[in-house]
Predict the 3D structure of the following.
Amino acid sequence: MKKSALQKARAAYQPKLPIVLTGAVKAVEGNPTESVADQAEIKKLFPNTYGLPELKFEKNTNPVPGAALNVGVILSGGQAPGGHNVISGLFDGIKKIHKDSRLYGFLMGPGGFVDHKYVELTSAIIDEYRNTGGFDIIGSGRTKLETKEQFDKGLEILKELKIKALVIIGGDDSNTNAAILAEYYKSINAGVQVIGCPKTIDGDLKNGLIETSFGFDTATKVYSEVIGNIQRDCNSAKKYWHFIKLMGRSASHIALECALQTQPNVCIISEEVEAKNLTLQDVVNNIADIVAARAAKGDNYGTVLIPEGLIEFIPAVKKLIAELNDFLAHNAEEFAQVENKRQYIIEHISKENAEIYASLPEGVARQLTLDRDPHGNVQVSLIETEKLLGEMVGRRLAEMKEEGKYEGKFATLYHFFGYEGRCADPSNFDADYCYALGFNAACLINAGVTGYMSSVRNLTNPSVQWVAGGIPVTMMMNMERRHGEMKPVIQKALVRLDGAPFRKFASKRDEWAINTCYMYPGPIQYFGPSEVCDQPSMTLRYEQNDK
Ligand code: FBP
């Protein structure tokens, strides 16, 4: 494979490990844990893996030689920068425990595990992928691991390859399934450990002990670079309003982080829209007021950041989606047959929700009834919220013009940033963090535990000072309604309106709205002064400072 000059230079980068992981470690147990909510139900569903203690690795002054380990790895869900480093860290970790250890990668996500499609990851393969973006080393997929048949089928290949542990690199849904798999294998004494790693650019898999999911840092830096470039163009030509939708299926962490980095005129935070019980029209009116206020100063240009998941957080739409989820789960066959699907929905759901449904533009309404992803989520990345908002703001401004409340020009351009950042070469932060997560997963396997997530924390300090250990996945769980049934799932971390990143944004946004305070973060830098190359996300810095 021909490599660019940067690829060659990056291949030589040696990620920095937390100092504790550079020598022999022992796992020190903390207190037994409880799930974040619904303790009795979760305990009943996970009798073998509930209540396990937190683990922290410490230096082992009296190590015993490790035995060779065969390990399997799966990349699950959407790509996130740094996945290849998790795998190279895991590879180096198990090789350090014993040189005859072997790593098998299941191809194209959990589907490869069930269908027995795999490749042995040798050092020649691993070396090709160190510090690179993408998940192409083994591919990823969204097959949901949930049935006993899948688990048993997977166990056949694990037994055949003498695999002692399976590492699942995924987001909240995939790690939920990892926990269910861990519980099942423990319950049948399968002799296979399951370890999770926190992945997702969305940044919504985090809690007190998982400070951030990997990939968020790099992806938001890539989006912020491009938003900054757009703002510079915008400030040069002074003639367009740019409506920029940002990925992040549910939570608005990506939009918030990009706003902190670039200081746009408007950034909508879905969680705030929900908390304030705003309607779509309220959101539109707020943007139109800012456009009008800037126009009054002669500034007919600006930037609006929109989180991908906004539509699901508008309370009325959220209620509608909840009913549609239940309704479609029970009437899928009949729905597939009917011709006029819009009318069918309007006639079959509650009056209140039917009214909301009927008021939505055709394209948005249709998307809400199309196939969910395998985890039951509406595919919000396919809804063109940026255009919907831009057009509605245009209509509102026309009304305001008639009322004599607005005088100006409103020309729009639309963008959607998501795929541009999901496979970028990991920033130094993600390169180090991912390598440490993978290496740490090897240590968890060697410690003999199952149902844990690899946890590396203290992340705003230099990487050598990071703390390494494991968190029982059941600790992050609560019960939620999915596909019309209550299920145990990892609780999603949404933007907290009382959290430091949002408070910072809220304290500045009025100034950013009217004045032009754009910041231009520029491209990710890999070589150079530490303050330019190694800074973690602002979200993480504000959150940690606040502790
Ligand atoms: P994960 O939660 O699996 O990490 O995926 C995140 C994400 O990038 C979302 O931001 C986005 O809505 C979704 O994946 C899009 O997925 P796909 O490309 O499979 O449609």
